[in-house]
UniProtKB/TrEMBL annotation:
Coiled coil: 236-263
Keywords: Coiled coil, Hydrolase, Protease
InterPro entries in the record: DUF8039, Papain-like_cys_pep_sf, Peptidase_C48_C
Annotated GO biological process: proteolysis
Protein name as it appears in the record: Ubiquitin-like protease family profile domain-containing protein
Length: 616
């Protein structure tokens, strides 16, 4: 790190953090951090949301540089302090005054005591890593390869345990106990009901959460984001049936296009006319994208960002004709061959190109998060309609008649409560978690709060909801209750703000709450119970003054899309980050009804997430 202005021999030419800085969190460093970040952005194409991560790495580099200076120049071979002069090679970065201050700090008894404590802790950790120089990344790949697994990663606590298995194959008892505790936790935690922001492994170890718990897992990854597979999810059978039903719907849509083409209508799936939300030309600048390959089957193999700038070069060389520069962020198929091997890094496989730039054919780049509706590949494989749901996993699709018998595919509505729960989990993992919305929004389990349960077990429903509300009495919070009329009936959204005693009623059939008096009675009773437990006094004549707002939300045009409307209501409320819902709905999303593309977006997200969970 560079010296401060006043001490630096070159005056104002360089500004940074001095090596005498012991507290990277010191607010006095904010200005220097801003300048470091500006320099990073000047040299690299990087998103603003990576600022904290990059500056955290800068802090680690500063600490490592101080350690290097101490061990290299201020200690002899026996570890005794040496009063050395300022190394000439660092004279442009460190001023003489700064160097003297740095040395004097390392002579103090306090520094020696802390240094010795840290050295002893590092030499005898509670759960020592036992794989030598093999890092977590290579260990994980070797395990997956050995087991011939189709998965792309291991749960973090499983990897943590494997890293502590000795050459004799034995596992220490304390390590095994931590692993078993993780397994128990992973089976019992419901993501959208969980208020502890720590990961499973951090909880088992009873330590604070931090992103380096298991190293080598990628940018900004915490343990929480790695514990997807073992958490409680709907049954495999339910999700398989849902996936098959949605696939059947896509196949039916494809047949409809064929019939339209035969009748003389324009084919909207032609390669020059992709669906209305898809841009046929790559926009200028940097855009998120999906990466496809056309051989041996047309499929999505990764995700990244396409750089479409005039005069763009790849490693100082011109790009191949018909290709654009792409940064690879995620490899869904790590063994996929790159369309243009990288001569600089010798990378030939997509998995080797993660975090770097490669050239990618323009016609195999899909900008944004929409997928085209027809494959350009002539060979038989997964059609794009199916591929957009199943990615590279070729899950067989049953015949439509069989699907209809088993899943009721004709209805096409996610009446299965497991599907609603799965999408709520998607919202938690993809929206609430990354945007820090857990303190403002929460979900109620529709399996415990549907009309059937309210009529049969009203006391249990009241107890469950009151407990959820009372867990968050110190802050204003909006609770989503996807309400079902029972026995696979109609879905609507009841959003409750118990702090302000307001209930928002969003019904895509545009009915009001008087249609379901039992539901309104129980919700009112719950709010009154919470009010009493919070010891809030109100006049007797106002005891029943609970505000119910019927929101003029988008209206469904059939009798089968209520579930998708309910899911989209929750998503749009989270995107707005508002705990109040206007009576005429949000300006940004106000419309008479949702288009087919808007509903397909929910289906796409749902199916992709089911595949990502790897529970099928």
């Amino acid at each position: 790190m560079m010296a401060s202005n006043e001490d630096h021999p070159h005056g104002d030419e360089t500004v940074g953090v001095p090596i005498t800085c012991d507290n990277w969190r010191n607010k006095q460093l904010n200005e220097a951090k801003d300048k470091i970040w500006s320099e990073i952005k000047r040299c690299f194409d990087i998103e603003e949301n990576r600022r904290d991560h990059c500056l955290k790495l800068a802090g680690k580099l500063l600490r490592g540089f101080r350690t290097f200076l101490s061990t290299t120049f201020l200690r002899d071979t026996e570890g005794t302090f040496v009063d050395a002069e300022l190394p000439s090679k660092y004279a442009s970065l460190i001023s003489p005054k700064e160097w003297e201050t740095f040395k004097s700090k390392r002579k103090t008894q306090e520094f020696k005591s802390v240094s010795e404590t840290n050295r002893q802790r590092a030499s005898s950790p509670a759960y020592p890593y036992r794989k030598g120089r093999v890092g977590y990344g290579r260990l994980e790949q070797s395990i997956l390869t050995k087991e011939n697994s189709s998965e792309t990663s291991l749960p973090a606590h499983v990897l943590w345990k494997e890293a502590r298995v000795g050459k004799d194959g034995k596992i220490k008892e304390d390590v095994q106990q931590i692993f078993e505790k993780c397994e128990t936790l992973s089976q019992s935690i419901v993501p959208y009901e969980d208020t502890d922001c720590r990961s499973i492994l951090s909880r088992a170890l009873d330590v604070p959460e931090y992103s380096g718990r298991v190293r080598g897992k990628g940018f900004g990854i915490t343990q929480k984001s790695l514990n997807i597979k073992k958490q409680k999810t709907p049954s495999n059978k339910e999700l398989q049936q849902t996936l098959e039903a949605l696939k059947a719907e896509v196949l039916e849509l494809r047949k409809e296009r064929e019939r339209d083409r035969a009748a003389g209508f324009k084919d909207t799936s032609d390669k020059d006319s992709i669906n209305c939300n898809f841009q046929p030309t790559i926009p200028e600048g940097i855009s998120p994208c999906h990466l496809y390959l056309a051989r041996p089957t047309y499929r999505m193999v990764g995700k990244g960002k396409v750089h479409n700038n005039l005069g763009e070069l790849l490693h100082t060389k011109p790009l191949p004709t018909g290709s654009l520069k792409v940064s690879v962020d995620i490899a869904l198929e790590k063994d996929a061959l790159l369309p243009h091997p990288d001569d600089v890094s010798d990378a030939t496989l997509l998995g080797d190109a993660i975090g770097s730039f490669v050239a990618w054919p323009t016609d195999l780049i899909i900008v944004g998060y929409e997928t085209p509706t027809k494959s350009k590949a002539k060979d038989k494989g997964i059609a794009r309609e199916i591929e957009s749901v199943a990615s590279q996993k070729e899950i067989p699709v049953a015949k439509k008649t069989e699907i209809s018998k088993r899943t009721g595919a004709k209805k096409k509505n996610p009446s299965n409560v497991g599907v609603i729960n799965t999408y709520m989990r998607y919202l938690y993992d993809k929206l609430m978690g990354p945007r820090g919305l857990e303190q403002r929004f929460s979900f109620l389990n529709p399996m415990k709060t549907n009309l059937t349960e309210m009529i049969r077990k009203p006391d249990e429903v009241r107890t469950y909801v009151v407990e959820r509300f009372m867990a968050d009495t110190d802050r204003e919070k909006l609770f989503f209750l996807p309400f079902n009329t029972g026995d696979g009936g109609h879905w609507l959204l009841v959003a409750i703000n118990p702090f302000k005693e307001i209930v928002y009623y969003l019904d895509s059939l545009h009915k009001d709450w008087t249609t379901y008096p039992a539901m309104k009675t129980i919700v009112d009773t719950i709010i009154q119970t919470v009010r009493a437990q919070r010891k809030i006094q109100v006049p007797k004549r106002k005891a029943n003054n609970i505000t119910w707002n019927r929101v003029e939300c988008p209206r469904q045009r059939n009798n089968i899309d209520c579930g998708y409307y309910t899911l989209r209501f929750m998503k749009e409320t989270l995107l707005m980050d508002r705990t109040d819902i206007p009576s005429d709905y949000f300006d940004e999303y106000r419309c008479a009804y949702y288009s087919k593309d808007q509903l397909d977006e929910i289906k796409e997200e749902l199916c992709q997430f089911i595949i990502e969970l790897q529970v099928l």
